Amino acid sequence: MSDALQLPRRIIPPPAIASRGEAAPASDIVRDVGVVIVAGGSGSRTGSAELKQFRWVSGKPALLHSVQAFMARPDVAVVVVVLPKSHAADPPPWLFQCDVDRLLVSVGGSERHESVVNGLEDLPEEVSVAVVHDAARPLVTDETIDRVIAEARKGHGAIAALPVVDTLKEVDEHGRIVRTVDRTNLWRAQTPQAFPRVLLEEAHVAARRDRVGATDDAALLERLGYPVVVVRGSERGMKITEESDFARAEALSILRE
User: Fold this and answer.
1) Which residues carry the site feature described as Transition state stabilizer (predicted)?
2) Which of 55, 75, 135, 195 could, after both became Cys, cross-link 157 (CB 3.0–4.6 A)?
3) 71 belongs to a structural domain
4) pLDDT at residue 30, as a whole number
5) Domain count, the chain
6) pLDDT over 70 at 43, yes or no
7) Residue 21 placed within a domain
8) 174: CB partners within 8 A, 6+ apart
């Protein structure tokens, strides 16, 4: 981690940005959002030699869905795509169908949090809101992106999530049920997750210092006591993990919110 990442930054509240339903004058749009798309995984659980983020879903590579979704926003200054080391030096050519002036490619680490840190280090100084998204969730909706960024602009973290609707059982090492877990306040975390940049960087610096990891970035802010809120995600925000998930993603791609 570079020294630059450890320097504190002052959060300057950005000017108000028009809602999606209003046309904002070009001079009123501030590009203060930086997006880190984590695409550094091997995708071994799909059983395919091809990286799952490069496989096609609903007419285009999975990763391209996410990149184009964020670049469609006028307030996004840059999208950093974090690729495995084996692909970062020679990214797939279809990736450059995007706005190359707002596209950066970074090298993934051995763990997810290392990949996020590498992406954060590439964000330009003007970025005050940092968004982290998993490339394995290709069908992110504009509405979900709006909601997490709107909350991050208020000075706290925000994650997309859905309430748990299934009955949950805790089991022991033999598969025997120990208890039924109350699902009343339980939510399934998704991405994107958005944060004031200074808080996310501080959380990663602390995690590195304390030698802890996490499966998502919100957990790193939680351990420092910073507030993180949940906003409504979408069933389209599913994560592709196994081979059967590709068929499910194809089916969900025709749905909206």
Assistant:
1) 45, 52
2) 195
3) yes
4) 87
5) 1
6) no
7) no
8) none
